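INTERNAL AUDIT FORM
Audit reference: QA-55
Scope: verify that the stored structure record matches its stored sequence.
Auditor: D.O.
Record contents follow.
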Amino acid sequence: MRKAAAAAVAAAAAVGVALLARRQMREAKRWGRADAVLRGLEERSAAPPARLRQVADAMAVEMHAGLASEGGSKLGMIISYVDSLPSGQEKGLFYALDLGGTNFRVLRVQLGGKEGRVVKQECDEISIPAHLMTGTSQELFDFIAAALAKFVASEGEDFHLLEGRQRELGFTFSFPVKQSSIASGTLIKWTKGFSIDETVSSCYGVNSYTSHRLILYS
């Protein structure tokens, strides 16, 4: 009886293993077919390198045309007047201000040149009160300048100026601006919930105004 029971158990186990193996084979075939379909779609959708180069070249032509003359391209281009990029050799204490939404960020960074890179950095994010987003430019930029001044005042001893150098400030103004130089321009329109009409129609433009206000604290 024991032998018969053992044989029955072994037979049942073999049947179970066979069923499991059959199920796995069916699933493998099903996944194999799905994988083949996906690979086919990938191959048909992939752009050949030559076509990608054509697209890149066409975009470069349109960008140059847009920068050469207003309305000269299908792409909307605005001159930034940035004619050089960081070299990696920069040293000293730098501040950055990024305004582009309901919050703005101020950053303090100590650069150590090619060897030191970013020695130390600190960042603070400040919420802009809703009423300032639809108030006056004077109120908005006074608020930003005051927040920046407070951040500068919290500078610790770990940050230091190089001899003969001063703190430098970069300002990222993430709104469409028609610039007349790297530090001045006229706001084209507000986005991201801001609506201060007097600033858009202002003759001095947003960038020149904010640069004047913020440099007081640099």
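Auditor finding: record pair retrieved intact. The mean pLDDT is 77.
Action required: none
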